[in-house]
Amino acid sequence: MTMPPGLPGKLKPGSRVLLRTDLNVPIESGRITADERIRASLPTIRRLQQARCRILVMSHLGRPREGQHDVAASLKPVAAALAERLGEPVGFRRDWIDGVNSRPGSVTLLENVRFLKGETGNSDALGRRMAALCDLYVMDAFGSAHRAHASTHAVAQHAPRACAGPLLRRELRMLQRALENPVRPLVAIVGGAKVSTKIEVLERLAEVADELIVGGGIANTFMAAAGLDIGDSLHEPKQLALARQLMAPSSKRRATVPLPRDVVCEIPDSHEPVIREADGVCQGERIMDVGPKTRKHYGRLVKSARTVIWNGPLGVFEDSRFADGTEALGRAIAASQAFSIAGGGDTLAAVGSFRIKSKMSYLSTGGGAFLEYAAGRALPAVEILNTVAS
């Protein structure tokens, strides 16, 4: 993927900058429970402040019904949190599409873009109205780069100038480093409930990785495809053929897919989990995590790696009874000498839970965009920046 142009070297003081960020943070009872995306936006905002730009910040939050104001999805709490992180006031505008007055160096957070009709439909008319607010449009929301929406795509077509922000460009550089020119061995970890939601990711990583570790319900499907009895474990019978294909030797596929050697099962009518050999799962039991032999094996693979890309837990880590596999994997990555990049909501939650954030080389702010890039798909918001710049 071609790297889109970045911020101009010099910005005229007083320039109107429309900055698309990803401030889609979790909010419970009006309180932000994780502010990593807010913190990630700060360097770009501060750089624009230093240039004395008039900064209008756009973002979405949640999935409200388009075109309708929803208090539960309002960005107003985010404005207060952003002001606290910046250490200075941040304005907030509910009705902004017809224009915003602001001072040089000021920051104004605009209400949820999804309250505007036409946002998710990538309305050209809405993109024009957004573009009329600025002299420069800056796309810095990697987490939304896989969506062709008015605030990520149409606006770039009509803005006087459009470019990628520093965070977006850094995300792309990190992913390129991990996937397009990795230092080998490359170990890829893909966890999650369903193979069907990550087919293209698995297919691409099977081609570029040296080891492809699968976890969660995905691993159960691969175990079933290998002829192992998985009891009543979550899996996808319709994906068994694909799993067999990915495990079979092929000149096209580089990766070896190691299967669990032992597993942790939940058994009927008991709170206590039981460890089973991979070929010893009984009817009625459900695989919920990998066992100690598997943890050690995966740990050795990670230790020998020079690049690690991680998306998805190995088990139901939200339940402490089944968190050991994911924690052991995370700590093995943290202790390794490999360049490591982790992405996806569950993965970042696990990294935070096990307090290993500072030990990871890079934490991606994107979930869907991370997977789209890993699958080798084009990111519309990045493609349009390259188009308007050419």
Please provide a written account of the structure.
The chain is of the alpha/beta class and 390 residues long. The protein has 13 helices and 16 strands. The radius of gyration is 23 Å and the shape is elongated. The two termini are 15 Å apart. The mean pLDDT is 94.
Characteristics:
390 residues; alpha/beta; 13 helices; elongated
Helix percent reads 25-40%
Which blocks of ≥5 consecutive residues have pLDDT under 50?
A: none
Number of helices: 13
- Mean pLDDT across residues: 94
Helix and strand content put the structural class at alpha/beta
How many beta-strand elements? 16
In angstroms, what separates the terminal alpha carbons? 15 Å
Query: Outline, from the CA principal axes?
Result: elongated
Biggest sheet details? 6 strands, parallel
Rg for CA atoms: 23 Å
Strand content: 15-25%
In spatial order, strands of the major sheet run 5-6-4-1-7-8
Please provide the ordered H/E string of secondary-structure elements.
EEEHEHEEHEHEHEHEHHEEEHEHEHEHH
Fold topology:
Blueprint: E1 16-20, E2 27-28, E3 31-32, H1 36-50, E4 54-58, H2 76-86, E5 91-93, E6 107-110, H3 124-131, E7 136-139, H4 150-158, E8 162-164, H5 166-179, E9 186-190, H6 199-208, E10 211-214, H7 216-225, H8 240-247, E11 262-266, E12 274-277, E13 286-290, H9 292-304, E14 307-311, H10 324-335, E15 339-342, H11 345-353, E16 362-363, H12 368-374, H13 380-389
Parallel strand pairs: 1-4, 1-7, 4-6, 5-6, 7-8, 9-10, 9-14, 14-15, 15-16
Antiparallel strand pairs: 2-3, 11-12, 11-13
